[in-house]
Amino acid sequence: MEQQIQQLERSQEKLQQEVDAEDARVSAESRRAKLRRAVAKVERNATQIVTITEALPSVLLANFTLIAIVVSVGLGMIVLRFVVMLACPEIARHAKTYAHIINFLFGIVGEAFSIITVKNALNLLGFLTDAEASALEAAQEATVVAIPYALGIAHFKNLFHGVNWETFSTDDIQTFFSRLPVECAAYDNIQEVFLFPAKALASPAVCPVIRFTWPVEWLYSVSTTLLGWLSWGADPTGNNCVPQDADPYAWVCVGLGAGYIIIDVLLPLLLFMLFAYKYVFPTIGIVIGATELAMIEGEEVGDDIKETIETIADGTEEVVKKLIAGRFSGGPEERNWPGSYI
């Protein structure tokens, strides 16, 4: 009877081993299939990136003129800013001369704007967009537009009738250009140049939202962290959303620093629209594939660790059973040691 039980236990153990072996084989095959899919995904997306990169010179060459114009304008405006900053002391010293020049230029601009009406603007736009119209015809149309104003018989309201073209005195020019380098010293990076107009435009809508969260400290901290870059100070006990964009120097400094916006914002945006967007999905695919590979390897390592722990646990359990069996069996069993004379 005992032999039959032992034989049955051995059969069950053998059957369990066969089941475990089959499960391990299926698990290994499934892991290999997942591994092959993840590797194929990484290889496929890497191949796409290589293909895109190989075509990059031709894309850049085809759009070289546009890129060169944007870079030239941006760098030119940055250089112009430095030139203006360096020339400010000289302009301030000769304020009278520069006041006459500036007033003369503003007078020309004012006279040019005085002939702009809805009708004339539409007429000129029609001539300029007409593929068959020559430059001479456009010039003739411009002359015809100016004649009614020269004769004082214009009948259409000027679009810029509310603009007051003021003249500048010597003191105005001297004060302005004396202060300009100091006021614009901080506007030498994209952060300052971009944030000031962003706050001026968005603060009327954003600041009240932040101020509404002020009574709840943690909520105010979160809203300030997320939206504070688009708002003036929202603390009711402090600035209380009062606009800080009335300083005329700040807007002039933003205009002089527009080159930083072109180089740091418009140029990257242009490059992204031309070719960089093609890298987005292949890069995401590589990241996903690499993540899957890491997860598969992690599962394998976890299985190995689990198997090792189970082996150690089984061995420990067996040793404990033997110790307990030896303790309650009346003493350790006799061993016939080689060479023993006991």
Measure the end-to-end span. 37 Å
Secondary-structure-based class equals mainly alpha
Helix content: over 70%
Order of helices and strands: HHHHHHHHHHH
Portion in strands: under 5%
How many strands appear in the DSSP assignment? 0
| Rg, alpha carbons | 41 Å
Put simply, the count of helices is 11
Shape: elongated
List low-confidence stretches.
153-163
What number is the mean pLDDT? Answer: 77
Main sheet makeup: none
Protein described:
It contains eleven helices and no strands. The radius of gyration is 41 Å and the shape is elongated. Helix 2 packs antiparallel against helix 10. It has helices at 2-62, 64-93, 95-113, 118-129, 135-150, 170-183, 190-212, 217-227, 248-256, 258-274, 280-327. Residues 153-163 have low confidence and may be disordered. It is mostly helical.
What secondary-structure arrangement, pairings included, does this model have?
Layout lengths: L1 H61 L1 H30 L1 H19 L4 H12 L5 H16 L19 H14 L6 H23 L4 H11 L20 H9 L1 H17 L5 H48 L15
Helix pairs in contact: 1-11, 2-6, 2-10, 3-6, 4-5, 7-8, 7-9
Give me some keywords for this one:
342 residues, elongated, 11 helices, mainly alpha, single chain
